[in-house]
Amino acid sequence: MLYEINEKIIELERKGKKIIKFHIGDPDQDTDPRIIDAALKAMKQGKTKYSSAMGEKDLRDALAEIHGVNADNIIITPGSKWAIFSIIFLTLEKGDNAIVPSPHWISYELILKKLGIRAKFLKTEIDSEWKIDVGKLESLIDEKTKLIILNNPNNPTSKVVNNNTLEEIVEIANNRGVTILSDETYSEISFLKTKCILDFDKNHILVNSFSKTFAMTGWRMGYAILNEELKNKMTKLNQITITNVPVFIQEAAIKALELKKEISRKIKEDYQKRAELACKILSKSKLKFSRPDAPFYVFPRCEEIDSEKFVFDLLEKGVAITPGTSFGDYRDCFRISLTRPDDEIKSGLEKLVEVIG
Fold first, then answer.
1. What mean pLDDT do residues 167-183 have?
2. Do 7 and 86 belong to one domain?
3. 3-state DSSP call for residue 98?
């Protein structure tokens, strides 16, 4: 469906139609020039050669200090998606299963399917503010369950898992011998304070990314924090596949971490204003939605629509969104990505409200 939407957008733009693109989570802010300069400087210094498949020690040291872990338990990856793929590939076998709260980022489902791993979806509902029912989660665990994949804050709902729920999930996972893979890509720019999975138990796995916090989506910079055995396996996998993340990009990441407080505060402020604007406009419609706890999505529901049809109807009006079916069994929902300038958000959402009534 996402490919169909993109093809339709291209077709409409060729005809001269302007499309307001709410369908993709790619920040419209530019990467900070100081981060770019750090990469350029590193390239001019000759840092363009092969390097460690685990990642540069200086970068791992900086991340270790932030997370309160040993640098030897950190591996640098080309984006968080490769980290997630590698962890599933190395820890699960055909016949195993993983529990995924839904709505969910589609890559989890596609990676599991590609590797022959069964995904057991834990459906959450907008009526409960997308909260995870820990009783239902535990009931899904069986002898073949090896992983619980959390996305906190969540894409597409932008909701944060509260600390009590996280604590309960960790307790259940520990009691049942299941590992938690926590994807915390949006945590540093969350409107609500979030606790890292490692704050509860350092035996679980953290995956994170520079993409959203620093507007570095195209740089492909991520990392994972995991036990030594799995880190060693991932290092070997990197050696025979990607070799290493380019050193000059890692140098840029070090600079980004130096600027983290400043940059993340600005990005958070921008998206809080956008979320307020979006909620103000959407509240004038018959849509039901939950206020975002983090950038940069809203995931409304309208029982009267088929979101796959509605997406193409709205495209004809010049606004692109993503159907709820891209995130699980949510045909009456759709995702709006607030990664456009304020004026486009205003005009695009007003069009959406006009169409939906």
1. 98
2. no
3. strand
Residue 148 and residue 288 in one domain: no
Task: Tally DSSP H helices, then E strands, for the chain.
Answer: 12, 12
Residues 293 and 160 placed together within one structural domain of the fold? no
Residue 116's pLDDT band (boundaries 50, 70, 90)? Answer: very high
d(CA 139, CA 121): 12
User: Please, which pLDDT band fits residue 185 given cuts at 50, 70 and 90?
Assistant: very high
Per the structure, how many domains does the chain have?
2
Instruction: Report the 3 state secondary structure along 101-135.
Output: EECCCHHHHHHHHHCCCEEEEEECCHHHCCCCCHH
CATH number for 330: 3.90.1150.10
**Angle formed at CA 41 by CA 38 and CA 44, multiple of 5 degrees:** 150
Is there a single domain that holds both residue 301 and residue 220?
no
The two structure tokens encoding residue 98: 């993983």
Average pLDDT rounded to a whole number, residues 126-135: 97
Helices 80-91 and 228-240 cross at an angle (nearest 10°) of: 110
One domain for residues 159 and 216: yes
Give the pLDDT score at 183.
98
Residue that wins the pLDDT comparison between 170 and 11: 170
Per-residue confidence (pLDDT) for residue 52, from 0 to 100: 97
Task: Provide the residue range defining the domain that includes 309.
Answer: 2-25+261-356
